[in-house]
Design brief:
The structure is a homodimer. By secondary structure, chain A is mainly alpha-helical. Helix content of chain A is 70%, strand content 1%. Chain A has one domain (8-296): Farnesyl Diphosphate Synthase, CATH 1.10.600.10. In chain A, strands 1-2 form a two-stranded antiparallel ribbon.
């Protein structure tokens, strides 16, 4: 797409449709036995998520002259990891949330046991999808699976959630908070763009640039999430607002203040834009627009 | 090892030691941040499990002229899947068990939230380990990862647990019960021997024989588990005895009776032995002994 006629709204709409059709095809049908399990899986996957991670994956593939088709199994895989992690995060023993994306959370509809299992199965789906992608000259299935496993594992995504849990009610330093956010959110966003680039057989220099871009955007994204939790209503967010404060979660606004948090988000996004300098401008229109969109979102 | 000097006790001891050292090396150290998460992971992994699945994996590699070394990452991976599934299965929202292998269950020691996360992370570890195995001429990383993902996924392992959950308090037919047992237990046991064979680059005919062997032994294993729950004490089992009946779980003894269940287990094991006919006798000593051991165990 050229700079002139690029519309982020179109990219979102087409990308979402593409990812949704991929997920529909790659996930087991809801009629698969046991039916309730597969309904629970699809309930959360199709509960109106923004598909930010898959869109970043597709946009990164574009940036490296790749195609959406090749990136699709990976885009779907990161969405499955994201969704499994939300289902488990919402459980009574974890964040105990009733609402997610404006709808009752998985365990509210299917019960706790089925929600645990649906999350477990979605993680497995993610790895099956990843193993189903096409290998490239530079990246084999080993590289793709290891990439996802590292981002989703006990040193990154799950590390962030565990540290977040342990930090409740504690006074955190900014670096401790950054440890959590980099793992809880940034790791999977970075992985999404890296996988997109890898699906396009990107050279190491481009993969480095995507890594830097993904890290910065990922951290910015979580800082903004923290800010929105303070500044927006439950209705706008589609999830319980003010939740961080009431559950005594450490957030950027609570640790460094609201305005400094906004400045941090701005600086991170600038650094992300800078990383995109490694690519010709016309190839990163979508990535750049997505990053800009993240700073302007209100939910 | 020759028929003459094969000792199952030696195989168990050496195999266990080999698998334990592999797990110690392949899992993140318990000092990894966040410490509590990595302690919780290691607590359940090293809680005295029988390592039946990894031993089957190593024995299957032997049957196909492979080495323990090559099979090790896969042997460790199936143990991680097994352990994650036990941790989640013991949660209050699931089977609500206080004891596992004679020790307090994970959530009793680390709390529910950390137990959920430890289970999640163990599943991720399993896929990272699988992607870390050596590819063979016939089987690439895609094949290994897909093999594990299918056995662990929503059509097999998780399907069995979900169906088991839904069946509580229901009167099941024998075929419905078999649906559950084949998925809940047999799928991962079958996968363990298949992965062992694949690590040894086994030809399709041997893989078929291992598949048949694994399916039969796997189902026999669960039938015997059901029998032991009725006939043994909590002390002997190291987990709460009589649990199936008190939680109104459908079991082979409750559906077809105790003696017919014992006959079924015997028939399944005979069918498993028959499948081993595809291999020279001296190569399947360990596999055969393991299967015999399963029929004679009292816990």
């Amino acid at each position: 797409m050229s700079l002139k006629n690029f519309q982020l709204a179109d990219f979102f709409e087409q990308g979402e449709r593409f990812v949704n059709s991929g997920l529909k095809r790659l996930l087991p049908p809801s009629s698969t036995k046991p039916k309730k399990l597969h309904e629970a899986i699809r309930y959360s996957i199709f509960a109106g998520g923004k598909r930010l991670r898959p869109l970043l994956c597709l946009a990164a593939a574009e940036a490296c002259r790749g195609t959406w088709e090749r990136a699709l199994p990976l885009a779907c895989a990161v969405e499955c990891i994201h969704t499994y992690s939300l289902i488990h995060d919402d459980l009574p023993a974890m964040d105990d949330d009733d609402l997610r994306r404006g709808k009752p959370t998985n365990h509210k509809v299917y019960g706790e046991a089925m929600a645990i299992l649906a999350g477990d199965a979605l993680q497995t789906c993610a790895f099956e999808m990843t193993a189903g992608c096409e290998a490239t000259a530079r990246y084999g299935h080993q590289a793709f699976v290891q990439e996802l496993a590292r981002a989703a594992g006990s040193r990154q995504l799950v590390a962030g959630q565990a540290a977040d849990l342990e930090a409740e009610g504690e006074a955190l330093s900014r670096s401790e908070l950054q440890f959590i956010h980099e793992r809880k959110t940034s790791a999977l966003l970075r992985c999404s763009v890296r996988l997109g680039g890898m699906s396009a057989d990107c050279p190491p220099r481009e993969l480095d640039a995507l890594t830097e871009f993904g890290s910065r955007v990922g951290l910015a994204f979580q800082v903004i999430d923290d800010i929105l939790d303070v500044t927006q209503s439950t209705e706008t967010l589609g999830k319980t607002a003010g939740k961080d404060e009431s559950s005594q979660k450490a957030t950027y606004p609570s640790v460094v203040g609201l305005e400094p948090s906004q400045a941090i988000a701005r600086r991170l996004t600038d650094a992300a834009f800078k990383a995109l300098g490694a690519f010709p401008k016309r190839r990163v229109i979508a990535l750049r627009s997505l990053a800009e969109h993240l700073l302007e979102r209100d939910r």
